[in-house]
Amino acid sequence: MDGEDQMDQVYEAFVHWADVILVATPIRWGCASSLYYKMVERCNCIQNQETIAGRVLLKRKVAAFIITGGQDNVQGVAGQLLTFFAEIGCQFPQHPFIAHSRGWSGEDMENNIR
User: Fold this and answer.
1) How far apart are the C-alpha atoms of 112 and 110, rounded to whole Å?
2) Alpha-carbon distance 8 to 75, whole Å?
3) What is the dihedral of CA 42, 47, 51, 57, to 10 degrees?
4) What confidence score (pLDDT) does residue 19 get?
5) Measured between alpha carbons, how far is residue 64 from residues 23, 51, 78, 86 in Å?
6) CA angle (3, 84, 100) in 5-degree steps
7) Rounded Cα gap, residues 107 and 110, in angstroms
8) What is the rounded CA–CA span in Å between residue 72 and residue 102?
9) Taking the complete model, does pTM exceed 0.85, yes or no?
10) Do residues 46 and 14 lie in contact, with contact meaning Cβ atoms separated by under 8 Å?
11) Whole-angstrom Cα distance, residue 11 to residue 31?
């Protein structure tokens, strides 16, 4: 554990204080950002409570996502986020994510063949 990365505050907010967990990530190389994955990997202690001890720490918590990026795979990234947060006990609103991608033409990909 890194005592200076403030994950203890994230754990406390997730488990004790949050009614809603709103996660935002850009899309990088078709995936969520590395910072998102670093946070999620550190949240395995929350998941372990459910898997090992049968305690769901995030029940009745609502999770939602903002996903931005200049490339495709918005649905794939949303699926990964939905899967992880469902696994640790979160619930989702009717429209659980807002996503925006500028797409192929927004990235000027047609110029890559020059």
Assistant:
1) 6
2) 30
3) 140
4) 92
5) 6, 23, 10, 11
6) 100
7) 8
8) 8
9) no
10) yes
11) 24
* Beta strands, E only, 49-89: 62-69
Note down pLDDT in tens along the chain; length 114 residues. Answer: 666 778 888 888 888 888 999 999 998 888 999 999 988 888 888 888 888 998 888 888 999 999 887 666 888 999 999 999 998 889 998 888 877 666 555 555 566 666
> Which residue in this structure is represented by tokens 């990365």?
5
Q: Which residue has the tokens 């994510």?
A: 97
Q: Give residue 63's pLDDT.
A: 93
CATH match of 7-100 with 3.40.50.360? yes
If you compute the radius of gyration of the chain from its CA atoms, what whole number of angstroms results?
16
Residues found in the chain = 114
Pairing between strand 31-32 and 20-28?
antiparallel
Q: For 2-69, where are the alpha helices, taking DSSP H only? A: 7-12, 34-42, 44-53
